[in-house]
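New here. Invent one.

***
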Amino acid sequence: ISRLQQEAALVDADAVIGVHLRDRMITMGARGKGGDDGGEVLEFTVVGTAVKAPWITHPKGSPILTDLSGQDLWALYQDGFEPCGFLFEFRRYHVWHVTPGVGNSNRVRRIAYEELKSASAAVDKARGIAAQRLVAQASAVGAEFVVGSNIEVSVRELPCGATGCVLDDMDVDVSWFATGVRRIPGRRLERHSVPP
């Protein structure tokens, strides 16, 4: 993310819009687990478009990153707001012994339309941790609101790995992208008309 900001600063941009992240697993851990064995490597690539937007207040050489489109940025401006920071949180939450296993065990799955309370609790916990951290990021950049939230939750069942264990573990991945916004300091709102 800092590299994208540096490249935008080189072209004297005020902001980078449409910021999005691509992730790719380069290697997986020895047991296919969620990195708890130290062998998993993820690569993240961040891309966006550098733009001039002179109304955005930012320190010189530090363009604001946002996942908002150019249209969203203009609409914010029309209503007296500006982006003040790109917010991103990734959380992997691992839970042991959650579901009846099918891998190496001889036990047959007996899940028939019933909620796995520990799995639901794990998803809620992972989302809660990500939300707390995202709110802290928003506060750190001086945001009054968070907009453009894109939340992805994925769940993956994994073999426990312990000899003789008949239960599978579970990884919950939460990725959350958003933009912190605030009122433009000292700006008086102008009435704007709806386009014909």
Observations:
- The chain has three helices and six strands.
